[in-house]
Protein backbone atom coordinates (compact mmCIF):
# COMPACT_ATOMS: atom_id res chain seq x y z
CA UNK A 1 0.00 0.00 0.00
CA UNK A 2 1.43 3.38 -0.97
CA UNK A 3 1.17 5.74 2.02
CA UNK A 4 1.19 8.81 -0.19
CA UNK A 5 -0.09 9.14 -3.72
CA UNK A 6 -0.85 12.06 -6.03
CA UNK A 7 -4.55 11.22 -5.66
CA UNK A 8 -4.61 12.17 -1.96
CA UNK A 9 -6.63 15.35 -2.37
CA UNK A 10 -9.97 16.34 -0.89
CA UNK A 11 -10.49 19.58 -2.81
CA UNK A 12 -9.93 20.84 -6.35
CA UNK A 13 -6.72 19.82 -8.08
CA UNK A 14 -3.91 22.08 -6.82
CA UNK A 15 -2.24 24.09 -9.57
CA UNK A 16 1.42 23.69 -8.64
CA UNK A 17 3.30 20.40 -8.05
CA UNK A 18 4.33 21.52 -4.55
CA UNK A 19 0.66 21.98 -3.65
CA UNK A 20 -0.08 18.44 -4.83
CA UNK A 21 2.80 17.07 -2.76
CA UNK A 22 1.76 19.07 0.31
CA UNK A 23 -1.89 17.96 0.07
CA UNK A 24 -0.90 14.32 -0.41
CA UNK A 25 1.47 14.23 2.57
CA UNK A 26 -1.02 16.04 4.81
CA UNK A 27 -3.69 13.49 3.86
CA UNK A 28 -1.35 10.55 4.50
CA UNK A 29 -0.31 11.93 7.90
CA UNK A 30 -3.93 12.65 8.88
CA UNK A 31 -4.90 9.03 8.15
CA UNK A 32 -1.89 7.42 9.90
CA UNK A 33 -0.60 6.10 6.57
CA UNK A 34 2.62 8.05 7.03
CA UNK A 35 3.84 7.66 10.63
CA UNK A 36 6.19 9.79 12.68
CA UNK A 37 9.84 9.36 11.79
CA UNK A 38 9.34 8.39 8.14
CA UNK A 39 12.07 9.79 5.92
CA UNK A 40 10.81 11.86 3.00
CA UNK A 41 13.54 11.64 0.37
CA UNK A 42 13.60 14.45 -2.16
CA UNK A 43 14.42 12.19 -5.10
CA UNK A 44 11.81 9.61 -4.12
CA UNK A 45 9.12 12.29 -3.92
CA UNK A 46 10.33 13.87 -7.15
CA UNK A 47 9.99 10.52 -8.91
CA UNK A 48 6.62 9.75 -7.33
CA UNK A 49 5.07 13.09 -8.32
CA UNK A 50 6.97 13.46 -11.60
CA UNK A 51 8.28 16.90 -10.74
CA UNK A 52 11.51 18.78 -10.17
CA UNK A 53 13.26 18.53 -6.82
CA UNK A 54 12.80 22.29 -6.38
CA UNK A 55 9.03 21.65 -6.20
CA UNK A 56 9.65 19.02 -3.54
CA UNK A 57 11.80 21.42 -1.52
CA UNK A 58 9.08 24.07 -1.58
CA UNK A 59 6.52 21.51 -0.39
CA UNK A 60 8.79 20.32 2.42
CA UNK A 61 9.43 23.90 3.53
CA UNK A 62 5.67 24.50 3.72
CA UNK A 63 5.12 21.30 5.70
CA UNK A 64 7.93 22.18 8.09
CA UNK A 65 6.26 25.56 8.74
CA UNK A 66 3.13 23.61 9.73
CA UNK A 67 5.19 21.41 12.11
CA UNK A 68 4.18 18.29 10.16
CA UNK A 69 7.75 17.46 9.15
CA UNK A 70 11.23 18.17 10.49
CA UNK A 71 14.13 19.14 8.24
CA UNK A 72 17.34 17.90 9.85
CA UNK A 73 20.66 19.33 8.67
CA UNK A 74 22.67 16.89 6.54
CA UNK A 75 19.99 14.20 7.02
CA UNK A 76 16.95 15.43 5.15
CA UNK A 77 13.22 15.64 5.87
CA UNK A 78 11.30 13.34 8.22
CA UNK A 79 7.70 13.22 9.38
CA UNK A 80 7.74 15.02 12.75
CA UNK A 81 8.24 13.00 15.93
CA UNK A 82 6.65 15.03 18.75
CA UNK A 83 8.25 14.72 22.19
CA UNK A 84 6.11 13.97 25.27
CA UNK A 85 6.44 17.63 26.32
CA UNK A 86 5.34 18.81 22.89
CA UNK A 87 2.41 16.38 22.99
CA UNK A 88 1.19 17.86 26.27
CA UNK A 89 1.60 21.40 24.93
CA UNK A 90 -0.41 20.53 21.79
CA UNK A 91 -3.30 19.23 23.88
CA UNK A 92 -3.15 22.30 26.12
CA UNK A 93 -3.30 24.52 23.04
CA UNK A 94 -6.19 22.51 21.61
CA UNK A 95 -8.18 22.94 24.79
CA UNK A 96 -7.69 26.71 24.66
CA UNK A 97 -8.60 26.98 20.97
CA UNK A 98 -11.52 24.55 20.98
CA UNK A 99 -13.16 26.07 24.04
CA UNK A 100 -13.26 29.42 22.26
CA UNK A 101 -14.46 27.93 18.98
CA UNK A 102 -17.22 26.02 20.78
CA UNK A 103 -18.48 29.23 22.41
CA UNK A 104 -18.35 31.10 19.11
CA UNK A 105 -20.19 28.33 17.28
CA UNK A 106 -23.31 28.37 19.48
CA UNK A 107 -25.07 31.41 17.96
CA UNK A 108 -24.21 30.34 14.42
CA UNK A 109 -25.10 26.64 14.44
CA UNK A 110 -28.12 26.06 12.20
CA UNK A 111 -30.24 23.00 11.56
CA UNK A 112 -28.21 22.08 8.47
CA UNK A 113 -24.97 22.23 10.47
CA UNK A 114 -26.37 19.98 13.18
CA UNK A 115 -27.64 17.49 10.61
CA UNK A 116 -24.26 17.42 8.88
CA UNK A 117 -22.45 16.80 12.15
CA UNK A 118 -24.79 13.96 13.06
CA UNK A 119 -24.15 12.45 9.63
CA UNK A 120 -20.40 12.69 10.30
CA UNK A 121 -20.85 10.86 13.60
CA UNK A 122 -22.80 8.09 11.89
CA UNK A 123 -20.13 7.72 9.19
CA UNK A 124 -17.39 7.71 11.81
CA UNK A 125 -19.16 4.95 13.76
CA UNK A 126 -19.57 2.95 10.57
CA UNK A 127 -15.88 3.33 9.75
CA UNK A 128 -14.92 2.29 13.29
CA UNK A 129 -17.15 -0.77 13.16
CA UNK A 130 -15.70 -1.73 9.78
CA UNK A 131 -12.12 -1.31 10.94
CA UNK A 132 -11.48 1.51 8.46
CA UNK A 133 -9.01 3.48 10.57
CA UNK A 134 -8.05 6.05 7.89
CA UNK A 135 -11.71 6.96 7.31
CA UNK A 136 -12.37 7.11 11.06
CA UNK A 137 -9.45 9.48 11.60
CA UNK A 138 -10.46 11.65 8.65
CA UNK A 139 -14.05 11.95 9.86
CA UNK A 140 -13.02 12.63 13.45
CA UNK A 141 -10.80 15.49 12.34
CA UNK A 142 -13.54 16.78 10.01
CA UNK A 143 -15.95 16.88 12.97
CA UNK A 144 -13.71 19.24 14.92
CA UNK A 145 -13.02 21.35 11.85
CA UNK A 146 -16.78 21.64 11.27
CA UNK A 147 -17.15 23.33 14.66
CA UNK A 148 -14.41 25.75 13.63
CA UNK A 149 -16.23 26.43 10.35
CA UNK A 150 -19.47 27.16 12.18
CA UNK A 151 -17.65 29.45 14.62
CA UNK A 152 -16.51 31.55 11.68
CA UNK A 153 -13.10 32.58 13.02
CA UNK A 154 -10.64 31.81 10.24
CA UNK A 155 -7.51 32.46 12.29
CA UNK A 156 -8.54 30.07 15.06
CA UNK A 157 -9.64 27.61 12.39
CA UNK A 158 -6.13 27.63 10.91
CA UNK A 159 -4.65 27.07 14.34
CA UNK A 160 -6.97 24.12 14.89
CA UNK A 161 -6.16 22.61 11.48
CA UNK A 162 -2.48 22.51 12.43
CA UNK A 163 -3.16 21.29 15.96
CA UNK A 164 -5.42 18.44 14.81
CA UNK A 165 -2.72 17.23 12.41
CA UNK A 166 -0.13 17.35 15.16
CA UNK A 167 -2.56 15.47 17.42
CA UNK A 168 -2.81 12.76 14.76
CA UNK A 169 0.97 12.35 14.81
CA UNK A 170 0.93 12.20 18.61
CA UNK A 171 -1.81 9.56 18.71
CA UNK A 172 0.02 7.49 16.12
CA UNK A 173 3.26 7.67 18.10
CA UNK A 174 2.07 7.30 21.69
CA UNK A 175 -1.45 5.90 21.38
CA UNK A 176 -2.70 2.33 21.15
CA UNK A 177 -2.79 1.53 17.43
CA UNK A 178 -5.50 -1.07 18.00
CA UNK A 179 -7.79 1.33 19.86
CA UNK A 180 -10.15 3.91 18.40
CA UNK A 181 -9.25 7.56 18.75
CA UNK A 182 -12.77 8.12 20.06
CA UNK A 183 -13.73 4.82 21.64
CA UNK A 184 -16.61 6.41 23.50
CA UNK A 185 -19.40 8.37 21.84
CA UNK A 186 -17.82 11.71 22.70
CA UNK A 187 -19.03 13.54 19.62
CA UNK A 188 -22.76 12.88 20.03
CA UNK A 189 -23.20 14.76 23.33
CA UNK A 190 -21.12 17.64 21.93
CA UNK A 191 -23.62 18.06 19.09
CA UNK A 192 -26.52 17.82 21.54
CA UNK A 193 -25.08 20.62 23.67
CA UNK A 194 -24.31 22.75 20.61
CA UNK A 195 -27.86 22.32 19.29
CA UNK A 196 -29.31 23.21 22.70
CA UNK A 197 -27.06 26.27 23.03
CA UNK A 198 -25.77 25.09 26.41
CA UNK A 199 -22.40 26.84 26.53
CA UNK A 200 -21.11 25.57 29.88
CA UNK A 201 -22.04 21.98 29.05
CA UNK A 202 -20.55 22.24 25.56
CA UNK A 203 -17.22 23.55 26.81
CA UNK A 204 -17.11 20.88 29.53
CA UNK A 205 -17.77 18.14 26.97
CA UNK A 206 -15.04 19.43 24.66
CA UNK A 207 -12.61 19.44 27.59
CA UNK A 208 -13.66 15.93 28.58
CA UNK A 209 -13.22 14.67 25.03
CA UNK A 210 -9.70 16.03 24.71
CA UNK A 211 -8.81 14.75 28.19
CA UNK A 212 -9.99 11.30 27.08
CA UNK A 213 -7.67 11.40 24.06
CA UNK A 214 -4.72 12.63 26.10
CA UNK A 215 -5.27 10.04 28.83
CA UNK A 216 -4.83 7.27 26.26
CA UNK A 217 -1.24 8.28 25.50
CA UNK A 218 1.62 6.11 26.72
CA UNK A 219 4.85 8.11 26.67
CA UNK A 220 6.84 5.01 27.60
CA UNK A 221 5.89 3.49 24.28
CA UNK A 222 8.36 5.64 22.38
CA UNK A 223 8.88 5.75 18.66
CA UNK A 224 9.11 2.60 16.62
CA UNK A 225 11.93 2.22 14.14
CA UNK A 226 11.50 4.93 11.51
CA UNK A 227 10.57 3.45 8.14
CA UNK A 228 12.12 4.70 4.95
CA UNK A 229 9.92 6.01 2.18
CA UNK A 230 11.05 3.06 0.07
CA UNK A 231 9.75 0.66 2.73
CA UNK A 232 6.47 2.56 2.94
CA UNK A 233 6.02 2.35 -0.82
CA UNK A 234 6.87 -1.34 -1.12
CA UNK A 235 3.97 -3.53 -2.32
CA UNK A 236 2.04 -5.06 0.55
CA UNK A 237 3.39 -2.67 3.16
CA UNK A 238 0.64 -1.24 5.35
CA UNK A 239 0.21 0.66 8.56
Automatic annotation (TrEMBL):
PROSITE patterns per the UniProt record, alphabetical: HTH_GNTR
A Gene Ontology molecular function term of the record: DNA binding
Entry keyword set: DNA-binding, Transcription, Transcription regulation
Gene3D superfamilies documented for this protein: GntR ligand-binding domain-like, Winged helix-like DNA-binding domain superfamily/Winged helix DNA-binding domain
HTH gntR-type domain sequence ranges: 15-82
Keyword Ribonucleoprotein: no
Protein name, per record: GntR family transcriptional regulator
Protein species of origin: Fulvimarina endophytica
